[in-house]
């Protein structure tokens, strides 16, 4: 313990050590302490001085007074004789007593203070005794208070418990009364249901239904109670009784509506009569409000039990049976009247009948929702029966219709006028009508496909052309003369504001834009016209996949018919006429099928020209030729390029019409080559065959065809043919194509073929003939031929009919035929 105190004092001594303080202060704290110390020192110094002066003065005076008093008393006793000093011993004793008295006098203050303290101690002990007594009394009082408080609390708790028990008993009584009330409701409900004045539209009836629902729900949710199953049965009997009243009233009201809707003679009104709508719908709507209110109450309870669902189903069945009993004869009679009125006009009959059933569906839907709020499955069955009358009426007309135009128009009516314009705008109300229309549309499309197959076989493939169908080029010349006459008449009406010479020029008479009278729809070859008409009807009538299959068959038939017609023209007229007839109609076919926007593909055949056109336009731009061409010109330009990638593209795409057009153009180009420079081509064929089969060329000059005079004959004959027959070709192109750009595109490979042939001739002459022999042959250079062709093309012949008659069709002017070359 002493060690701890020592450590404490040592720590206290070191707390403000200047070198290593235990509790170092900051400079600000030290500054503050110094300021406080200075202030305290000033105050304490003043107070101490005053206090010390006062204390010293008092103590000196008291001491002096006490000392004087003591000294006076001691000397007084000595002077009075009470004390006598006779010896030193007495003096010393006196002096000791005096000294003791002086000491006592000096401690008097302390003794007085001690006495005062002892007095205070006595007072405190006395007060402590009084406090102890008071505490004892308070403790006793507290114990008495606790006893009373406990008694009061116990009484309060007993009262609260009694109140709780009273509340529990009251709640138990109420609960028992509530539970018993569900059992006691049976007698009340049974009595009310037996009342003859009870109405299904009154508030009391709705209250009875509510109480029955609550009682049945309560009994079913508390099966542990006694006799709950018995009371459930009783309440269900009451519920069936109440719902039977509703069922009877609904049936009676509907039958009354039907009787009121009939005419005085008892017959059903037809929709064609002016008052039919009032009878068929107005009489029913008179009872709609009362029944709608009652049905709303039943519909709100239809999930509470099977009785309500059965009642609602029975009411729906009664409604639809009465409506069908009333409306079916009227609809049948109206449809029969329409069938009689439009017996030969199937399109008008279909349109009117569909519109009539459409209106019936709208009216029936609205009338149903004036009676009921929830949709019924029987509504669809009812609508199906009414719409089925439309199907029964139209189907016989559909399956006996043979005309593509009629069938296509029926498809348009059903798909566009009915589905797109009406059904899609209100699909829920017209769902049954939609199903019937789809079935009719399917039947019409099936019939259309069947008749299209027959039409293709009979009117396209089996078409037998008459003489006027293949009268080419006479038909074109006749149309050209008609166009010139019309143009002259138009020129005369212009007056002097237009020059006659400029109007009457050939280029003005025929604008060569592809819109000449020869390109009119009526001038097309009949199978082509029929094929395009058939495609146009099918395109807007059947789905895409079906149309692709049919279109391939139609296009194949059209191409076969055109090829057959071209073969007949070749037999009766000239090869040029046959080829140009074929090319012209294939271009027409290609242009007319472009808007259909389908692939025309079945298995390995297709006829989608969009990529061909894009490739052709890209090829033009690549070569720097920016032409303002039509789709046919672009296609023709693309087909005649002759590049390997073009041929590969056609092989990959498998386009039937494009391949046929390309092969026809190639045949025309090859024929024009023989027709214009046949002798040169014969010579080149013989020379190429000889060079291919013989490595030793020393015997070349000994061959008859290689003699310079024979070669000179080939060259002169070819130049003669070129000058005399080129106008024939040019005139034919002008007559058939009637478009300068198309003529140029088709003739350009012919020109290239001619120039290439003379280029090959020039190479052979330079290689195998001497300069003297080449001078004897006098073959023109390729550049000369190119300039000659360009000059001749600038001049457009107006008529070369006589030249066409003089020109033989066979281009074989050489002495030896080509086929004899070994």
From TrEMBL:
On whether tRNA-binding is a keyword of this UniProt record, the answer is no
State where composition is biased (Basic and acidic residues): 799-808
List the GO biological process terms.
Answer: Golgi organization; intra-Golgi vesicle-mediated transport; intracellular protein transport
Coiled coil start-end = 103-130
Which locations, inside or outside the cell, does it occupy?
A: Golgi apparatus membrane
The keyword rRNA processing is annotated on this UniProt entry: no
> Which Gene Ontology cellular component terms are annotated?
cis-Golgi network; Golgi membrane; Golgi transport complex
Question: Region annotation Disordered: residue ranges?
Answer: 799-822
Q: Which UniProt keywords apply?
A: Coiled coil, Golgi apparatus, Membrane, Protein transport, Transport
Q: Which residue ranges does the record assign to the Conserved oligomeric Golgi complex subunit 3 C-terminal domain?
A: 278-612
Topology in the lipid bilayer is annotated as: Peripheral membrane protein
Q: Where is the Conserved oligomeric Golgi complex subunit 3 N-terminal domain?
A: 113-255
Would you say which domain of life the source belongs to?
Answer: Eukaryota
What family name appears in the similarity comment?
Belongs to the COG3 family.
Can you say what this protein is called? Conserved oligomeric Golgi complex subunit 3
Q: Which organism is it from?
A: Daphnia magna
């Amino acid at each position: 313990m002493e060690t701890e105190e020592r450590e404490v004092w040592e720590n206290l001594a070191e707390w403000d050590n200047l070198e290593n303080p235990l509790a170092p202060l900051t400079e600000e704290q030290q500054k503050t302490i110094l300021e406080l110390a200075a202030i305290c020192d000033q105050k304490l110094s003043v107070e101490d001085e005053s206090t010390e002066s006062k204390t010293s003065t008092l103590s000196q005076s008291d001491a002096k007074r006490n000392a004087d008093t003591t000294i006076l008393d001691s000397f007084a006793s000595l002077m009075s004789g009470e004390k006598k000093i006779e010896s030193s011993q007495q003096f010393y004793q006196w002096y000791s007593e005096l000294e003791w008295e002086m000491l006592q006098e000096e401690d008097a203050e302390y003794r007085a203070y001690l006495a005062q303290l002892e007095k205070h101690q006595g007072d405190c002990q006395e007060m402590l005794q009084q406090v102890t007594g008071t505490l004892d009394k308070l403790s006793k009082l507290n114990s008495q208070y606790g006893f009373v408080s406990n008694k009061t609390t116990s009484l309060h708790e007993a009262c609260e418990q009694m109140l709780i028990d009273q509340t529990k008993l009251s709640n138990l009584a109420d609960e028992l009364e509530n539970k018993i009330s569900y059992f006691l409701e049976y007698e009340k409900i049974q009595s009310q249901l037996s009342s003859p004045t009870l109405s299904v539209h009154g508030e009391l009836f709705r209250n009875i239904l509510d109480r029955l629902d609550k009682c049945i729900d309560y009994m079913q949710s508390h099966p542990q109670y006694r006799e709950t199953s018995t009371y459930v049965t009783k309440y269900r009997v009451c519920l069936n009784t109440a719902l039977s009243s509703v069922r009877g009233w609904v049936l009676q009201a509907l039958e009354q509506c039907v009787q009121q809707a009939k005419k005085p003679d008892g017959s059903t009104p037809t929709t064609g009569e002016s008052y039919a709508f009032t009878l068929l719908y107005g009489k029913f709507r008179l009872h709609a409000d009362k029944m709608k209110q009652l049905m709303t109450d039943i519909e709100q309870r239809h999930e509470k039990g099977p009785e309500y669902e059965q009642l609602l189903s029975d009411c729906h069945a009664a409604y639809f049976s009465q409506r069908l009993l009333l409306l079916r004869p009227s609809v049948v009679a109206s449809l029969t009247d329409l069938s009689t009125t439009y017996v030969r006009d199937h399109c008008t009959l279909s349109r009117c009948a569909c519109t009539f059933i459409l209106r019936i569906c709208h009216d029936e839907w609205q009338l149903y929702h004036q009676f009921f709020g929830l949709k019924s499955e029987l509504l669809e069955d009812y609508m199906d029966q009414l719409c089925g009358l439309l199907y029964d009426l139209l189907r016989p007309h559909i399956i006996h219709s043979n005309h593509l135009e009629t069938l296509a128009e029926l498809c348009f009516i059903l798909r566009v006028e009915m589905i797109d314009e009406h059904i899609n705008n209100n699909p829920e109300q017209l769902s049954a009508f939609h199903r019937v229309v789809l079935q009719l549309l399917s039947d019409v499309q099936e019939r259309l496909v069947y008749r299209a197959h027959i039409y293709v076989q009979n009117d396209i493939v089996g078409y037998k052309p008459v003489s006027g169908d293949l009268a080419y080029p006479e038909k074109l010349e006749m149309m050209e003369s008609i166009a010139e006459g019309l143009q002259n008449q138009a020129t005369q009406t212009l007056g002097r504001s237009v020059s006659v010479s400029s109007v009457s020029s050939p280029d003005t008479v025929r604008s060569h834009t592809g819109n000449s009278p020869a390109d009119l729809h009526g001038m097309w070859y009949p199978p082509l016209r029929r094929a395009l008409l058939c495609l146009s009807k099918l395109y807007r009538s059947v789905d895409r996949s079906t149309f692709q299959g049919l279109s391939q068959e139609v296009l194949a038939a059209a191409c076969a018919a055109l090829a057959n017609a071209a073969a007949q023209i070749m037999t009766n007229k000239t090869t040029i006429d046959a080829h140009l007839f074929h090319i012209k109609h294939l271009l027409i076919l290609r242009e007319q099928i472009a808007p259909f926007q389908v692939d025309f593909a079945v298995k390995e055949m297709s006829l989608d020209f969009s990529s061909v056109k894009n490739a052709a336009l890209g090829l033009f731009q690549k070569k720097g030729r920016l032409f303002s061409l039509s789709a046919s010109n672009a296609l023709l330009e693309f087909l005649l390029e002759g590049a390997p990638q073009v041929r590969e593209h056609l092989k990959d795409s498998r386009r039937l019409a494009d391949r046929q057009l390309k092969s026809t153009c190639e045949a025309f180009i090859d024929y024009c080559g023989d027709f214009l420079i046949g002798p040169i081509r014969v010579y080149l064929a013989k020379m190429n065959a000889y060079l291919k089969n013989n490595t030793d060329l020393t015997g070349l000059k000994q061959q008859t065809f290689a003699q310079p005079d024979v070669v000179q004959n080939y060259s002169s004959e070819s130049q003669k043919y070129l000058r005399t027959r080129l106008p024939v070709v040019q005139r034919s192109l002008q007559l058939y194509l009637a478009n300068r750009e198309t003529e140029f595109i088709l003739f350009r490979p012919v020109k290239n073929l001619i120039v290439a042939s003379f280029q090959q001739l020039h190479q052979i002459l330079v290689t195998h003939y001497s300069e003297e022999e080449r001078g004897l042959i006098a073959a023109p250079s390729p550049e000369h031929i190119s300039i000659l062709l360009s000059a001749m093309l600038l001049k457009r012949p107006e008529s070369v009919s006589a030249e066409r008659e003089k020109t033989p069709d066979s281009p074989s002017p050489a002495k030896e035929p080509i086929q004899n070359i070994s």
